Structure formats: C-alpha cells, structure tokens
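Handout, page 2. Input:
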Amino acid sequence: MLLGPVSFPVQASPGALAVNAAAAPATCQVLHLDLGAITFNTLGLQVTTQPIAIDLSGDAAGPLGNLVCTALETIGNAVGLVDLLNQILRLLTGLVGGIIPS
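Output:
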C-alpha cells in the first residue's frame, strides 16, 4: 500500500557516439541513467538501495543495435533519416510478407 507520493533522484543524459577501435563492430552509447539511492517503507519493511547506474548501448553487428545506432547518427540529418525510414519500411514489409502467405 502506497501512502503518499514517491520521488526518486534521477539524472539522465544522452550517450555519445563511440566507435570501438579494437573490434570490427561499431557500438554507440544510447543512454546513461543515474538513479540516486532510494529508501522506502513497504508495510513495515524498510528497503534502501544503493545508487544505480544504467548504461544502454547498441552494437551495430545486431539488427536492433544497428537500428538504434543508425537512428542516433541520423539525428539532424534529413537524408540519413529518410534512408533509415526506408530501412524500417523494408524490414516491416519483409516481416509482414513472411507472416502472410502469398
């Protein structure tokens, strides 16, 4: 039972595009999220967490990671954005074509 409003100290920042020079696949940092320590009481049980840091990054070698990295690269780039939307459309068309028999 929650007795009142809850707030958590959170700091989020966009990741910067980074290329891993040691390995062939490129990676991009998507999000860095810092959650401060959280303390709450649940029916008399006191729970306290340590600060939590979450880093999300994409690996261009995988389909979803490649999509995320490409999206980050195309922010502010109209031609790249149109190309990305065409890639998504081809992917969706392929998925629908595989589901619906011809």
